Amino acid sequence: MNCTFTKSFALLLLAAAVFTGCGKSETQTKTELLTKKTWVLSDYGYDDNLNWTIESSESYMWTCDKDNVFTFKTNGTLSEDEGTNRCYSATGYSYDWTLSSDGTKLTIDSRTYTIKTLDSYTLEIYYDYQGSNGPSRYIKRWSH
Predict the structure, then answer these.
(1) In the record, which residues are listed under signal peptide (predicted)?
(2) DSSP conformation letters of 54-80
């Protein structure tokens, strides 16, 4: 009896492990990652030394930008809510956005950015350009 109970218990534990441990992982598309939650701007500016870091001298982030909330909508519009600490008199702005078919480029209005990071926590986009002092990179970072 004890042996039967032990075998039954072991089978029950094995079955529980199989059914709970083998759940299907859900992979989200880039569009789903963009549109699932709102984004808060964490920094933006010109990375003049191309080290992927926006030093304080390169940042264009103002105090009034820190409470701005961005919402990528599935209909292709991007809304920016200025929050309570406004940089300008307007309470919000609206832009058009598109994602390239391979998910590597994000166009906001007429500017196309390369996506460096897009995951459940971070969106980082950039474009390289030739400035008057040489090559530079414009970076924007958002987080949830």
Answers:
(1) 1-20
(2) --TTTB---GGGTT-EEEE-TTSEEEE
Report yes or no on 120 lying in a domain.
Answer: yes
Tokens read off for 103: 């998910």
CA dihedral 99, 100, 105, 109 (to 10 degrees): -50
Q: How many domains does the chain have?
A: 1
In tens, the pLDDT along 19-51 reads: 555 555 579 999 999 999 999 999 999 999 999
At position 113, the amino acid (one-letter code) is Y
Residue 119's alpha-carbon distances to 6, 30, 122, 144, in angstroms, are: 45, 8, 6, 10
Cα–Cα distance for residue pair 106/11, rounded to 1 Å: 51
State pLDDT tens for residues 85-109: 888 877 789 999 999 999 999 999 9
Looking at the domain assignment, is residue 12 inside a domain? no
User: For residue 102, is it within any domain?
Assistant: yes
CATH number at residue 122: 2.40.128.270
pLDDT of residue 88: 82
For residue 35, being part of any structural domain is answered with: yes
